[in-house]
What does this fold into?
Amino acid sequence: MNDEGVRRLCAAIVCQAVKDYKLWQKTLLQGKRPTDRVEMNGKSAESFFKSGWFQELTLVDYEVDPDKLMKRIREEAEHGLRERKKKKVFGEIKEIG
It folds into this structure.
């Protein structure tokens, strides 16, 4: 595998962990109980972010602070949830009006 292939593989692994962690956080923020799979994947992603393997994979292109990354993902999940609630409220207002 060439350098570009290695970079793409590293990026794909990290992207999947971000997706798993974000879904877990969104589910928790909605006050729902995550499915076993969502919870397992989210906790695995959290462990992965704190691992040496994550550090190795992200050093391929740049160094990433795992705590800052997880905080940003949680903030994005919160923002998405707030935006969804706004759209729902405005949609209900339009239906009334």
Q: What stands out?
A: The helical segments are 3-29, 36-49, 52-58, 66-96. The radius of gyration is 17 Å. The mean pLDDT is 85. Residues 50 and 67 are 8 Å apart (CA to CA).
